[in-house]
TrEMBL record, chains A, B:
<dbReference type="InterPro" id="IPR002249">
    <property type="entry name" value="CIC-7"/>
</dbReference>
<feature type="transmembrane region" description="Helical">
    <location>
        <begin position="300"/>
        <end position="322"/>
    </location>
</feature>
<feature type="transmembrane region" description="Helical">
    <location>
        <begin position="167"/>
        <end position="188"/>
    </location>
</feature>
<dbReference type="GO" id="GO:0062158">
    <property type="term" value="F:chloride:proton antiporter activity"/>
</dbReference>
<dbReference type="InterPro" id="IPR051280">
    <property type="entry name" value="Cl-channel/antiporter"/>
</dbReference>
<dbReference type="InterPro" id="IPR000644">
    <property type="entry name" value="CBS_dom"/>
</dbReference>
<keyword id="KW-0813">Transport</keyword>
<keyword id="KW-1133">Transmembrane helix</keyword>
<keyword id="KW-0129">CBS domain</keyword>
<feature type="transmembrane region" description="Helical">
    <location>
        <begin position="556"/>
        <end position="577"/>
    </location>
</feature>
<dbReference type="InterPro" id="IPR001807">
    <property type="entry name" value="ClC"/>
</dbReference>
<dbReference type="InterPro" id="IPR014743">
    <property type="entry name" value="Cl-channel_core"/>
</dbReference>
<feature type="transmembrane region" description="Helical">
    <location>
        <begin position="388"/>
        <end position="411"/>
    </location>
</feature>
<dbReference type="InterPro" id="IPR046342">
    <property type="entry name" value="CBS_dom_sf"/>
</dbReference>
<dbReference type="GO" id="GO:0005254">
    <property type="term" value="F:chloride channel activity"/>
</dbReference>
<feature type="transmembrane region" description="Helical">
    <location>
        <begin position="466"/>
        <end position="486"/>
    </location>
</feature>
<keyword id="KW-0406">Ion transport</keyword>
């Protein structure tokens, strides 16, 4: 039980850059101060500097001790919200420095900036396309070699007996490749595990997931993907490449060194990734908007669209060269489902209910998948957390996958004639007659993407129902086991494959039970619907997924059926359990903000929600106080309201700004002190550049040495604080606070009383705490895990 | 010159419901009060009730007089901003009544609400589809009859001579039909004129365009569209139906009686309209988002998508019945461009520069079109403003169009063989040999939509270059003349037709100048690119237009070229002049808010931007004061900050809420007074229902009789005011104010000093005033036109 608190890999290492918590005191929620309009009471809520932190430390001691005493016993469940994740600052820090810079800038300057944003997006698209192309070619080459070797081996031993040697060869080959992939992921960059979509979802939601946009992650991810696909796991090669390649570019342009710009570029990267993967530029844009942007900005959307287009274009261009048809740009993206054309695309009104029923099946199967994977993930969090164990599990899965596939192929007697138009690259003859091939092998002995394509487009009669049924069953469990392994791999393509298999099965069954089979002539259509249903049931995306499917199949006719199917799958699936990505996000205790506040939260106001008391700083503050405040590891606040006392009055101080930990650290590092003792100003003039240079890895406070003399100095925060932070009154209802917070991408929202005095601070965690459970509004616990 | 101030028809009648201006005093901008942190000065900015309005009236007298003295002499230009347009309240009025209702509501209640929203969206989609279907069928039938009559007539007279009789018949027929359409539009509902897109753009932007969402407008519009298309004007039948049919539905559900919900449903309606018109559900959603939503809400987007899908589906379903293929749902939308399939869809890398060049041409031609139409519109505003003149102009255009078409056909000798696969429904033989038909007639003697299709898909060689060149030239000017007439008609299809014509011309020319003509085999491809370029050059949409084109042509391959073309066309066109819709919006002096604040506006702060002084009300206010404030026609404020004095202190009062004119009117109407004189509370308990019943046509203040006794009563606003209005400090920069305002869809934003006292009010007009002109930041004048 000692490992119960262990998290799955992509968050298991805390961010080195340190500080967590957005100014949320540990006492959060334990004792909400009584609200009063009288200044005397209201004022006491805001405690200044050192005094406050000392108070806090005293107050929290018991709480903290109890935590330290039994840190291992915090049960790992979804009722927790981790304090370790920071928010991104989507709101510009409009301090004097920033405004001065903006005001100095001419109109041409802004035009240039705009153009360079386009250039960056173009580069992102280009690089994404390039990487996608690289992965595609390498996977194709390596998988080709592997399947060729195994195929020859199997053919050699089919006659003479001793197929177990082939099995062994296959299993060992797979395990070895997967081991390689698992090792680089588990030991070098755990965050590169999985599909990358939950991480990107969180990042776009505004949560700083450590290391998700670093070059190293990208390299590991590309390597990991190649290994897992080639290793024959039930995974897809898509989606994993969507996000990591922009950090390097972003930093070329100094101006873009802030969270706002970075997040925009990550959106563009995510869109470009999806776009390259599916040849779906519009779908990519919608994906990025659906998951990320809480607002809609036309220019930003165009840039994202531009990145998507460039990415698809680059991929097509290089693939066309690779396929010796240079300049033929009408190739689709990385995942080619083939185009549905001609008569097979038509559907009839009476098929709509069938499609909807398939959507319901997809929802049910998806929920089952998610529940199984949820249990598995809990198991993994508890027992399989050491890197070497993770690598071993991955190898085991690879070996089991090979064995099961082999067994299925071995015992299958679904022989199909090897017609002139057959599209399989590695047909296995096995025990079939000459000129025939084993149909089960088409499904298993292939990259998943090719299998999907053959399920969509092969002639009716290519598969017999039993083959499809067995394949669905085994692949379902294999895919479920595979997702969440310490390898870089997505759930997209496996879901599509499962769905396509049972969808085609439905089509075949329908054709047999109806007397006039001609109209059901195309089981490929049902495979497509099944694929959509299964994927929708697992991941629960609707809008972007519809468009992605439409674009990936190159035909808009199926738009309505696919949409209906996805909606049905989502409704049915949501009845049982959340989407797969949401489950994994929840298991990470990430403070994820949904689109709207919980419906029944109108009775909560900012007063109940906010953290209080708040550590405030004076506009001219003693350096020692600042250092102590920042060093206070028990609170780890990241934002501090700045207050000013009306001179000569004994009224409590009023809010005049907000300053971030990172800014204070830069100020301390550059020793921007006013030595009042010598009564002359020696405050160094800092430029915005100094802050940008430090971005994004601000040193921890411990690394900054402040001498005892310097502690006595003062620091003037006027220039550096954001002088106009957004504020709300205490009576503001939670939905209203939520809307403001979400629409503007805030990190800190100051709650003030009617005299403009600070009474509390609302951060992401305070809002994410409230969520709608089965029994109405629930409140999650906050924990420093 | 007396009519210079007259507006074009869709805004020429002021909204009967009266009050305009969002609390913007007439003195706006003339004298900004000096800012100070001292309470004595700051407090004086907020004047209470009657006192303030009297002051104001006195102050403005001279200003007003000068306006009254020479109202005719205000030159009509784009440097004006009209005060007559109101804003929508996208922000919920969170007063006590509202919160009580929300708090009483159970989780199931919210679910039901959500479900009914879906139902409404479904109904919107269904009705939109139905109306689209109705228009399509009626247009097809009537146009069929007309063309048949004219064709027979022409054939009769071709042999015997006397074709001038045919011309006369054609011209008279057209004029008569157009007259009918123009009469209903000009006399009954001027707002139904034009394409409807500028109006919807404004509405979605948050501006209350009077009567744009009423049933009468819808009926007139449908009639008008049918008449103009059948009348043979250079117009398209799309886009005009996009928005009007939801008011009636919305009001079934009482809860939805607020601007927030209404605007959401209008978004859905707009999307459904585009979706039905082009068979482009995704394009419809993107259109609605690109033009409207300033934020992105997942659930809302899904609902919009749902409405789009249902609309396309309904249209397809009923059209399939009409075409005797019931249940065949794979038909595309109303505008069927035909599908690009097979080999013709491929394009090569070296064609990309050609496409981009065509985009540039499209941008140039589009800019020319817009400039011409701009001058024409100015001319119309000055001289053609009386309904009968408008009808006459429309008839003139119809007659000229018929004459020009006839002349072109008459003098054309482009005879083409009447092959078995010809698709023209009304081939005109004229002077061609038997078995041939006049190719020029295909383009002119047809509904524009059919002409586009034939330009896209007819075999190479169907048109000769001279025909296309002449056609482009004449149609360009005809379409330019037609747009802005007092008929319901859009610019979409004519633009596409012009573009398709010169695009096909480009394709043919390219095929002739290159030695190996085989790769240029398909001029239809170039027609498509040309159509996109021309349309992009005129309307300057990019993202949604790309998707619409892709969906309308049923092929995603052209995504990248179309996008590049649209972007080029936009960049080139923007260099010269704005998009057509933006020009028309500007000519209306509508306070349209763009996506972002002007780039160089960082030096402006809320203090400079805000209107001040502000008319404030006390929390418990004298009825007489309220009546006087509301009756003050010179200010016509719509929102009033509510302030409260700290009892027993002489400090200036502090902000405690915000109340709207419409709320005050309902309160007055229901006589919610506290008769302090009798020292008992007789304040009637009002329900939220009372406010909803009054929505959206609140009576003007003049219609409410308040006796002298009642004037002495007090009114307690506590329950009804929004107790937590959004506020900003005075130092907030314009971009920050803009962002907050736009992201939350605000109508009033209160500016407070650091003691929480009201110093100003920012409304839509204050923000829309600043815009980026050729010479940097410009400030528009506000005028009560």
């Amino acid at each position: 039980m000692a490992n119960i608190t262990k998290k799955v890999s992509w968050s298991s290492r805390a961010d080195e850059s340190g500080a967590a918590g957005e100014g949320t005191p540990l006492l959060n929620g334990s004792e909400q101060p009584r609200h009063s309009r009288q200044p005397s009471e209201g004022g006491s809520l805001c405690q200044i500097g050192r005094l406050s932190t000392v108070d806090l430390e005293e107050e929290i001691t018991s709480d903290e001790e109890s935590q330290r005493g039994r840190p291992k016993e915090i049960p790992h469940n979804e009722k927790l919200l981790s304090l370790k994740y920071e928010s991104l600052d989507y709101d510009n820090i409009e301090n004097q420095l920033f405004l001065e810079e903006e005001r100095k800038m001419s109109y041409m300057g802004f035009r240039c900036l705009e153009i360079s944003r386009w250039v960056v997006c173009g580069l992102i698209g280009f690089l994404t396309g390039l990487i996608a192309c690289f992965i595609d070619i390498v996977v194709e080459q390596l998988a080709g070699i592997k399947y060729q070797v195994v195929k020859e081996n199997i053919e050699k031993f089919t006659e003479v007996g001793g197929l177990s040697i082939s099995l062994l060869l296959w299993a060992v080959l797979n395990s070895a490749i997967v081991m390689l992939g698992a090792i680089i992921v588990a030991f070098f960059e755990p965050i590169a595990a999985g599909s990358g979509i939950p991480q990107i979802k969180c990042y776009l939601n505004g949560i700083k997931i450590p290391r998700v946009v670093r070059l190293k992650t990208l390299v590991v991810k590309v390597g990991g993907v190649i290994c897992s696909v080639v290793g024959g796991l039930a995974v897809g090669k898509v989606k994993t490449l969507i996000s990591e390649n922009r950090t390097c570019i972003t930093f070329i342009f100094e101006y873009f060194r802030r969270d706002t710009e970075k997040r925009d570029f990550v959106s563009a990267g995510a869109a470009a990734g999806v776009s390259a993967a599916f040849g779906a530029p519009v779908g990519g844009v919608l994906f990025s908007l659906e998951e990320g942007a809480s607002f809609w900005n036309q220019m930003l959307t165009w840039r994202i669209f531009f990145a998507s287009m460039i990415s698809t274009f680059t991929l097509n261009f290089f693939l066309s060269i690779y396929h010796n048809k240079p300049g033929e740009l009408s190739n689709p993206g990385l995942i080619n489902f083939g185009r549905f054309q001609g008569d097979s695309v038509a559907y009839n009104l009476y098929e709509i209910p069938l499609f909807i029923a398939m959507g319901a099946i997809g929802g049910l199967l998806g929920a089952l998948f998610n529940v199984l994977n949820y249990w598995l993930t809990i198991f993994r969090i508890r027992y399989v957390h050491r890197p070497c164990l993770q690598v071993m599990e991955a190898m085991l899965v690879a070996a089991v996958t090979a064995t099961v596939s082999f067994t299925m192929i071995y015992f299958s007697n679904d022989c199909q004639p090897l017609g002139p138009e057959h599209t399989e690259e590695y047909p296995l003859q096995l025990f079939c007659a000459d000129g025939e091939y084993n149909s089960m092998a088409t499904a298993f002995f292939n990259t998943p993407e090719r299998s999907v394509r053959s399920l969509f487009h092969n002639q009716p009669g290519t598969y017999n129902p039993l083959t499809l049924g067995l394949f669905t069953l085994t692949y379902f469990f294999l895919a479920c086991w595979t997702y969440g392994l310490a390898v870089s791999a997505g759930v997209f393509i496996p879901s599509l494959l499962i769905g396509a298999a049972w969808g085609r099965l439905c089509g075949i069954l329908l054709a047999t039970i109806t007397p006039d089979g001609s109209i059901w002539a195309d089981p490929g259509k049902y495979a497509l619907i099944g694929a959509a249903a299964q994927l929708g049931g697992i991941v629960r995306m609707t809008l972007s997924l519809t468009v992605i499917m439409v674009e990936a199949t190159g035909n808009v006719t199926y738009g309505l059926p696919i949409m209906l199917v996805l909606m049905t799958a989502k409704i049915v699936g949501d009845y049982f359990v959340e989407g797969l990505y949401d489950i994994h996000i929840k298991l990470q205790s990430v403070p994820f903000l949904h689109w709207e506040a919980p419906a029944t939260s109108h009775w909560l106001t900012a007063r109940e929600v906010m953290s209080s008391p708040v550590t405030c700083l004076n506009r001219i503050e003693k350096v020692g106080t600042i250092v102590d405040t920042l060093s206070n590891t028990s609170t780890n606040h990241n934002g501090f309201p700045v207050v000013v006392k009306v001179s000569g009055s004994d009224e409590p101080p009023k809010l005049c700004g907000l300053i971030l930990r990172s800014q204070l650290i830069v100020l301390l590092k550059h020793k921007v002190f006013v030595e009042l003792a010598r009564s002359r100003l020696t405050q160094r003039k800092l430029q915005l550049k100094d802050f940008r240079d430090a971005y994004p890895r601000f040193p921890p406070i411990q690394s900054i040495h402040v001498s005892q003399d310097e502690r006595e100095c003062m620091m003037d925060l006027t220039e550096f604080m954001n002088a106009t932070p957004y504020t709300v009154p205490q009576e503001t209802s939670l939905p209203r606070v939520f809307k403001l917070f979400r629409a503007l991408g805030l990190r800190h929202l100051v709650v003030v009383d009617d005299e403009n005095r600070v009474v509390g601070l609302v951060t992401r965690k305070d809002l994410a705490r409230y969520h709608l459970g089965k029994h109405g509004l629930e409140e999650l616990q906050l924990a420093q895990t």
